[in-house]
Amino acid sequence: MAASELAPPRLSGGATARIRWVLFAFCLAVVGLLAAQVVLHGPMLELDQDTSMYSATHRHPALTALTLAMSAVHQTLHVLAATALVALWRARRHDWDSVGALLVVPVGMVLNWSLKQFFQRARPEWDDPLVQLASYSFPSGHALAATGFFGMLCALVFG
Q: Which residue, among 131, 151, 152, 155, has the nearest Cα to 75 in the 3D structure?
């Protein structure tokens, strides 16, 4: 049997795109169900509260400064500015595929905001909060921004 007979059939570009969208929708549904069951009402809520309380009562000035600095670096405007700089650099090299791929970062941020509105998980309330944010707490915007930006950066460097 020839190697070409063992290879899976090739899909057209349109079929591949449809499969990706179906997989994306499936993954989004699974994350939504897990979030609704585990994060908002299940054991993760208690673990999150306990971890937050421990961190609030065991603050160390050096770690607090480091945490605030890391948080500032991953604010929406900073991540979008860094993404724009990378996109400009790739555009100057006429790498339009990379520029398009970098749209994952702002699209992810819009998705994050939308999910926050959907889940509406309140932030923990503290007597002496380190910072106060008006947005909902889940999903984490900082985690999404860092994952989206650095993930795309890794994909561009190693892809």
A: 131
82 by Cβ neighbours in 10 Å (0-12 / 13-18 / 19+) ranks as: middle
CB 105 within 8 A of CB 152: yes
- pLDDT (tens, 9 = 90+) of the chain, 159 residues, equals 555 555 555 656 677 778 888 888 898 888 777 777 766 677 777 787 788 888 878 888 898 899 889 888 888 899 999 999 999 999 999 989 889 989 999 999 998 898 888 888 878 777 777 777 888 888 888 888 888 999 999 988 887
pTM score, whole prediction:
0.68
Structure tokens at 31: 């994350």
Amino acid at 2: A
Q: Is the peptide bond before 139 cis (omega within 30 degrees of 0)?
A: yes
Distance CA 112, CA 143 (A): 10
